[in-house]
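User: tokens in, sequence out, please.
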């Protein structure tokens, strides 16, 4: 099952570097199964970071094929990858575009990270664009923290368990069997 990412825009009052308050709207990415779950998850995630009131102004499906976080990076970049395929029927080369969200510190590092991701790809491709994304943070469904791993293990154990089968009960119903008489 593929992952569906939802871009959620959150509006809240932010304290800037000078100590002043300003209202800002920032996009975040959550992994969810539906718009309703995306709204619930972003509310839960943002409540941990924002102590004041906030409002979700927009939720839409994001068009990222894959999300690639990297350590010691603080910004997200959108990499456009064009996969090149040769259509034998028409004899033309065809491009299919897909987008990765890659974490990096600058555009060059984002390009290098994208090249590293695509290194094992067998087909031809090009990377026509890498641009900084406004995405502030990404919240995958399971973050890999210990409590999430425990939840996954408990879920898998429940899923793998089978309900206990009651011991076969003895049939106590009595039937009257009429004997056939010989003629």
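Assistant: Sequence out:
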């Amino acid at each position: 099952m593929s992952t569906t990412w939802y871009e959620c825009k959150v509006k809240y009052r932010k304290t800037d570097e000078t100590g002043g308050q300003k209202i800002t709207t920032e996009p975040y990415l959550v992994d969810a199964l539906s718009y309703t779950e995306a709204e619930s998850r972003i509310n839960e995630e943002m409540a941990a970071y924002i102590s004041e009131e906030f409002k979700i102004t927009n939720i839409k499906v994001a068009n990222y094929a894959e999300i690639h976080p990297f350590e010691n990076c603080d910004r997200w970049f959108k990499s456009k990858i064009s996969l090149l395929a040769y259509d034998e029927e028409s004899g033309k080369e065809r491009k299919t575009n897909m987008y990765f969200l890659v974490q990096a510190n600058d555009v060059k590092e984002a390009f290098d990270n994208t090249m590293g991701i695509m290194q094992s790809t067998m087909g031809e491709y090009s990377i026509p664009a890498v641009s900084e994304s406004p995405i502030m943070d990404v919240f995958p469904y399971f973050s890999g923290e210990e409590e999430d791993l425990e939840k996954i293990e408990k879920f898998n154990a429940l899923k793998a368990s089978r309900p206990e089968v009651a011991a076969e009960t003895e049939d106590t119903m009595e039937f009257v069997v009429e004997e056939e008489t010989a003629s």
